[in-house]
Design brief:
Elements lengths: L1 H13 L1 H40 L4 E7 L3 H5 L4 E14 L10 E7 L1 H6 L4 E4 L7 E5 L1 H4 L10 E11 L4 E3 L10 E17 L13 E7 L1 H8 L11 E8 L1 H4 L2 H9 L3 H7 L8 H12 L4 E4 L1 H7 L6 H35 L1 H9 L4 H41 L14 H28 L2 H6 L15 H20 L1 H36 L6 E7 L5 H10 L3 E15 L5 H10 L7 E9 L1 H11 L8 E4 L1 E8 L4 E8 L8 E8 L2 H7 L15 E2 L1 H5 L2 E13 L13 E6 H5 L7 H5 L3 E9 L2 H12 L8 E7 L1 H43 L1 H9 L4 H42 L8 H27 L3 H6 L4
Parallel strand pairs: 3-9, 5-8, 14-21, 15-20
Antiparallel strand pairs: 1-10, 1-11, 2-3, 2-10, 4-8, 5-9, 6-7, 6-8, 12-22, 12-23, 13-14, 13-22, 14-19, 15-21, 16-17, 18-20
Amino acid sequence: MNLMKTLTLKNLKLNRKRTIVTIVGIILATALLSALVTLVSSFQYSMIEYQKQKEGDFHVKFSGVKMSELSEFKNNRNIESTFETMGMGFAKLDGCKNEDKPYAYVMATDEAGFEKGCFNLIEGRMAKNEDEIVIPRHLRTNGRIDIKVGDEITLDIGKRYDSNTESVIWENIAYEHEAETLTDTVTKRYKVVGIMERPGYGMEDYSAAGYTFVTYSDELAAIDNGTKSEASEADTTLTVYSRYTQKALRNKDAVTADIIGVDEKLFEKSNNSSVEMSAEESDRFLKEMENAKYDIYINRFLISYECVFPIDGTFKALFTVAAVVALIIILTSVYCIKNSFNISITEKIRQYGMLASVGATRRQIKSSVKTEAAMLGVVGIPVGTMSGILASFILVKVVNALSAGWLNFALSFHTSLPALILAVILSIATIYFSATGSARRAAKVTPLEAIRNTKEIKIKSAKLKTPAIIGRIWGIGGVVSYKNIKRNKKKYRTTVTSIVICSVTFIVISYFMSMAFSMVGMSYASVDYNIGINMSCKKDLDIEKLSELLSGIEGAEDYLVGAVYYFDVDKPEYTKEYGEYCGQLYDDSEDVSQEFLITVLNDKSYDKYASDAGIKNAAAGAILVNKGTFDVYNENSLKYVKKEMELYKYKAGDTIECGYNVYDDASSDDNTAEGDTESSTEDNSGYVDEETINNGVRKTLDVTIAGVTDKVPIGYKSYSYATLLFMNQKDFESLWADGKSNELKQRYVSYSAYVVAENADEYQDTFEKETEGNPEYSQISFYVSNLDKQMRDEKSLFTLLGVFAYGLIVVIALIGITNIINTLSTGMELRSREFATLRSIGMTDKQFAGMVRLESVFISVKALVIGVPLGILISYLLCVIMNRMDGAIIYEPPYKAIILCIVVVIMLIYAIMKLSMTKLRHNNIVETIKNENL
């Protein structure tokens, strides 16, 4: 046995090039697996940190906890840690522009709260005593109150009191306007020491009536330090933010239900979207929640990100992607490394025959091959593991360096020991499976067959006839090449199969990642602007003049002004899929009128939109957005999923009859309040009821379709519930005659503008200065929404996904390219004796080049003819499987990946063959023929 090991080691040293190529394959496979698990671990850790920053480092928030009950949370074995906040009360803010949010809500906490709560400083520092306070950024952007760090403010803090119900109103209840007043006010003076982002919805609800101001609490600090007992302030009410243990997270619903005192099974059912509650259970659950000990808020995303078992939500998709990618890496790597072993065994077959002839058993020959694999693995696996970790570390650092200043958070490098151990185990399995088949094959060969080495070559005279066209085009070199391919099919099949696997892998993984982007985009992407402006006016607005106003303000990177008109279409030409979906919504779907929105854009925005959508003759009519995303019930996953579908059969040149109602003045005044710019016929599904349609004089317009697209201009991503048509002002006015436009504008129009500003805060300030007090805009009411943070959050999410998605595509491409290089270069190297023999009997360099070029053509064409259709088929099957499980998207072949694959394969094969051919020309013919180590 020692003799076989010595011989194996000697062979590895003598065949250094092949040994190095095989070790490189092992290093790359191990590096990819370790990089994959490290990137997944880093991605998970980054998302956890991001969610902590966004919502806070807690799992469940309990409101209305008495100070005397705090010890129950501190001593609960299911709770890892807590931090607390204390509501000090509300104070009226003078000069606040947001009528629905007129208060400051003063909250107190201690060091633990500042550290673990979602208080993200923009400027200054956190409060350190009870006379200091931190204010939110949206006090300025939303409330239009400008308070700076260093200012001193005086607040009359009290309780909100509802005079109708004669009760105190809690912090997250919306403003009741005239029904509420402040009582029991206490005057307090604070120094502003910091400005923070708006706290997450777990701390400040979307509809909350107050802006969250945060000060310091000596009481909470004393309790946390153990210098004060909870019992001394037993009646004080707190909000407790609890972080569960990992064990408790696996049974989080039962733990939470036990704390708030409700039925565990009902609570678990209510939080499980795949389980439907009966009407009786639903009523019973609502009554129990009304009588629950505490109100709760669940930080669901953080729980989803931190819960490994059971895998849930976002990371179920992430781990599924990682598992698929790991499987692809293993299969591709097995084939790549197996090729190296097969080629090695093919060339050493005479040696194995000699060993068998002098007494070596099959078991010893198998052991020799496996020993070779183990020796290569001992070198390749540690180097590969470290290389993968280093590559992940560099990738994270490069992304953070490139995205500094515009990515909303930093990626965190994080390694997981269990994950790395898993990567090493998978690498060992990869090498084992690669060597096993080759070892079995080496052991089966008889000594006589091995020494003659003729098993690889199958000769049948009928198959060796060469087509005449090959000789005419490629000459004698082409004829020899063709016959060689026919004689030695196994080697060429190995090469072609290797390229096919790499091509299929690249096409499938590219489609997989693009599909993941589509599904995430349907779920999350809704904001592509950071300044939204809604406008109302008693008269028609000039959208071109408004466009000049927006573009004239410095910092507008993109903008759009639109006037939306509401129409309905009787029995539109639905596609089969969308018709079935509408049939699920309405029992009488055949008689339903569908709402169509015609949006008139300013000329510049319309021209840009038409160009982006690829509509050449946009002035011929309206552009129809013919794709939408809807919530569809998936019977396989038993829950609603986002599904993208084509809507109608209309094409360019078709005409749509759009209907509208004309009302007399009295009807219009009765039904439309001043400033109400939205039709009463609208609902979120786009359905228009017959009663409303029949109320008034029915009229129609014929709208010609200039083009069909799936793209929407900025600001209209959230309009997926309705059918969208876009026109410019001139073409829209041409639809009308005899001044009929006023019939519609009075009731059915709403105006809005969307801006992508370089600095949203500065743009908002300038816009309000331009419009406030300006007599030109005195009759227009502007409602400005600053969505800068939300836009940055979504941009950060897509950037993060893009980094990891395209990073995976790059590493998969690398392993494929390495596999092709390994297979072709090793094959050319091992055939050097064959080439030297041909040259020794008179083959010229030109004939030799022709032979190699023809082989390149054969290999490329055959591999791509098999690989590309197979990649398309597997990607389609993947789409079908994902749609059955938890998604619904329209299949589109990955054309870019296919074209890139074809180009890279052709160029790569030609380059490798060319380089190998150049190298072989310089070899000494006699020495090459004599060399037995090839």
